[in-house]
């Protein structure tokens, strides 16, 4: 549903801790004049500190965002429902309305192992992949 001339989009991922949080911040920063942006998960875990850190590296502060359960949005209509992981694509319920459902899977940076440096590199890689995806997101 359009609000103030903008389309609405929600990014869904299981934990709403990394991928969907970064996507929310990127979309708001890059296309906030076109889209009203939300994110949620079916098992919210809080925002991962490395997600906040790597977003700050590119000038986007997501530290005020919060991890939300998708139940908060089940009665809301969205123009786009975007799932960012296989689990969300298969377990998230359908939202009401005529919104377009889009699935684009990304690696889970929060599930990575290894040194802090290696984990940070994985977060950066996913952040940059999300940025490319959002820049190619259909405008209206």
Question: Overview of this structure, please?
Answer:
This protein is α/β, with parallel strands linked by helices and 140 residues long. It has one domain (7-135): Response regulator (Rossmann fold, 3-Layer(aba) Sandwich). The protein is 34% helix and 14% strand. It has four helices and four strands, in the order E-H-E-H-E-H-E-H. The chain has helices at residues 19-31, 49-56, 86-91, 116-135, and strands at 7-12, 35-40, 80-83, 100-103. Strands 2-1-3-4 form a four-stranded parallel beta sheet. The longest helix is centred in the last third of the chain and has 20 residues, at 116-135. The radius of gyration is 14 Å and the shape is globular. It starts with 6 loop residues before the first strand and ends in a 5-residue tail after the last helix. The model has no long low-confidence stretch (mean pLDDT 88).
CA-atom Rg in angstroms: 14 Å
Name the shape in a single word: globular
Q: What is the H-and-E element order?
A: EHEHEHEH
Assembly type: single chain
Salient structural properties:
about 140 residues; alpha/beta; Rossmann fold; 4 strands; globular
Short précis:
It is built from four helices and four strands, in the order E-H-E-H-E-H-E-H. It is an alpha/beta fold. The protein has one domain: Rossmann fold.
Task: List strands and helices in order, with pairings.
Blueprint: E1 7-12, H1 19-31, E2 35-40, H2 49-56, E3 80-83, H3 86-91, E4 100-103, H4 116-135
Parallel strand pairs: 1-2, 1-3, 3-4
Helix pairs in contact: 1-4, 2-4
